[in-house]
Design brief:
Largest sheet: none
Radius of gyration: 30 Å
Low-confidence stretches: none
Structural class: mainly alpha
Helix content: 55-70%
Number of helices: 3
Order of helices and strands: HHH
Length: 85
């Protein structure tokens, strides 16, 4: 058996294997996609303060209310409670 014939047989075997796998996959329907939860969350008072601080720009870095709002947002994001501080 020559190398050329061996390569042809290997290519034909690979093609048959690919067709077989595709046929087996076509027999099983894909599972339905889960319904994603809506990403919309209700606004909190902290969000309103953060929006005001964002509008202040660089001046928000010295505003005490902004510093408290950022601290509250950071704690909410990290899952820290006010009592555990």
């Amino acid at each position: 058996m020559s190398a050329r014939l061996g390569f042809r047989l290997a290519a034909a075997g690979f093609a048959l294997l690919a067709i077989l796998v595709a046929a087996l996959q076509a027999r099983h329907p894909a599972p339905p996609a889960p319904n994603p939860r809506p990403a919309v969350q209700t606004a909190t008072p902290v969000d309103a303060r953060l929006a005001r601080c964002q509008a202040l720009g660089a001046a928000g870095a010295q505003d005490p209310d902004c510093l408290r709002a950022w601290d509250a947002a950071r704690n909410r994001f990290l899952g820290k409670s006010e009592a555990g501080r």
